[in-house]
Amino acid sequence: MSDDHTKARVAGVIGLGSMGMGVALSLLRAGFRVIGCDEAPAKCMSLVTHGGEAAATPAELGRQVDRVVILVATADQVESVLFGPNGIAATLPKGGCVVQSATVPAAYAADAGRRLADMGLLMLDAPVSGGPVKAAEGRMTIMASGPQEAFARAEDLLAAASGTLHRVGTEHGQGSVVKTINQLLAGVHIAASAEAMAFGIRAGVDPQRIYDVITSSAGNSWMFENRVPHILNGDYSPHSAVDIFVKDLGIVVDSARRMTFPTPLASTALQMFTMAASAGLGREDDAAVIKIFERLAGITLPEPKDNPEG
């Protein structure tokens, strides 16, 4: 009984970037024994200093846990950590549960779920939203789909990591479809916010005044309110990088093309982020998409402040 209870409170986290580390720390606060895995040793060491443990490979991690949250960046990385030579799927015990939270195409999520099921493993297609701050606070929004048995196995993990859990369906891929919709809106809103701020700056309006007016007006959005302070402070330290939206809006456009569905706004936003990435801004915060207007329109953006806020 005691061993079963202890095992039930062990969780693995693969991918210790800003989101994955936030999940790992939230699980630690909730009383889990947390074992992390990341290709960057410094990230593993950071988790250890916070009271967690580290595994050298996903395969090694699978020998120590029966539930794991995956928060890497791309579908290729998910494929590697699940099914690669050192993948976790081969070492997780039968009945183990994978909470796959990376943003991936819905078709890939469905395929991964089928392959894991064939190996006797459960999966939740459970992408997340909310950014590093909410991840660290255990208040992410999770949009999950999968069999009821997987929800039951992961219930306490999801409760520790999320502020809001949406059960969007029983089939793998449905959660990723909803995340794709979210990223369409998020990417378009960031691109539109950058265009609006650049337009106002070019017209000679004080950028802080623009922000103050818009955030109390009908044109406001969550992304405008969250990202424009990065511009005002001249601080493009990456919370979510330009490259992420090149990937995520690419998923939107590719998925729509397979459906023969037009996405004119998402396609334009993708081109804006691609322009920023091609200009060497890919690893900067996604608000740096505004810098393309420095080149296109000759605007002068706010300089970095000594003590940036937001």
TrEMBL record:
Pfam families referenced in this protein's UniProt entry, alphabetically: NAD_binding_11, NAD_binding_2
MF terms in GO: 3-hydroxyisobutyrate dehydrogenase activity
Keywords on record: Carbohydrate metabolism, NAD, NADP, Oxidoreductase
Keyword Hydrolase: no
Domain 6-phosphogluconate dehydrogenase NADP-binding, chain residue ranges per copy: 12-165
Domain of life: Bacteria
EC number: 1.1.1.411
EC main group: oxidoreductase
Domain spans labelled 3-hydroxyisobutyrate dehydrogenase-like NAD-binding: 173-292
Known function: Catalyzes oxidation of L-threonate to 2-oxo-tetronate. Can use either NAD(+) or NADP(+) as cosubstrate, with a preference for NAD(+).
NCBIfam families, A to Z: ThreonDh
Protein's name according to its UniProt entry: L-threonate dehydrogenase
Species this protein is from: Azospirillum rugosum
